[in-house]
Amino acid sequence: TLAPYSVLRTMDFVGTNQAQSARWVDRTRPAHASQHRGNPTRPVGNYQGRGAAWEFAVLLANQTGKDLWISVPAEADNDYITKLAQLIRYGSDGTNPYTSAQASPVWPGLASGRKLYVEYSNELWNTIFAQTDANHAAAKAEVAAGSSPLNFDGETNEWNWGWRRVAARTVDISKAFRSVWGDAAMMTQVRPVLMSQLG
């Protein structure tokens, strides 16, 4: 079924929309009884379920020989993002990512030669999703606090602040992945993407 495709986008697979994972301990782990509804650390309510463990997304890409496209949860803190970058590069023990290459990882990192596309959440322009409202609120709070680059030019449209915040968070995520994967991997193997919609 997956043979015709070159890239696997795991947005639905990991339950990106309405994702409530902000801290690494909140994420679904491979040992959880269910990769949909059974994660005891996250409440039910997301129509996509709680989402599968990152380890299974990496394993699927490795076993099918496909590139991987991930969507970082909108509420993920910087520690979560760094650990996600480590997990995808080095693998994990099922709970925590490795911080260097392992001879026999419990869960392996992304196979050599596979590309990784890294997106911040999903459709952060679409108000049907809670992550859009959360991003909008965060942008308003940042501008209200003062000295924000989101309104560096005097922009007063709050939605433009939100879209600029998406770009800023994409840069933050890119820097976190660069710190783990190194300069040489960026834009070659690791490819941050800034998505938009055009009608």
Structure description:
This protein has helices spanning 54-64, 78-90, 130-145, 158-181, and strands at residues 7-9, 67-72, 116-120, 190-193. With 199 residues, it is of the alpha/beta class. A 4-stranded parallel beta sheet has the order 1-2-3-4, with helices on one face. Strand 2, helix 2 (78-90) and strand 3 (116-120) form a beta-alpha-beta unit. The two termini are 30 Å apart.
**Low-confidence stretches at least 5 residues in length (pLDDT < 50)?**
none
Largest sheet: 4 strands, parallel
Shape: globular
Overall mean confidence score, pLDDT? 93
SSE-based structural type: alpha/beta
Distance between the termini: 30 Å
Specify the number of helices: 4
Strand content: 5-15%
Helix-residue proportion: 25-40%
Give me the strand/helix succession: EHEHEHHE
Nearest-angstrom radius of gyration? Answer: 17 Å
Total DSSP E strands: 4
Strands side by side in the biggest sheet: 1-2-3-4
Question: What attributes does this structure have?
Answer:
single chain; alpha/beta; 4-stranded parallel β-sheet; 4 strands
Précis, in short:
By secondary structure, this protein is an alpha/beta fold.
Describe the secondary structure blueprint for this structure.
Layout: E1 7-9, H1 54-64, E2 67-72, H2 78-90, E3 116-120, H3 130-145, H4 158-181, E4 190-193
Parallel strand pairs: 1-2, 2-3, 3-4
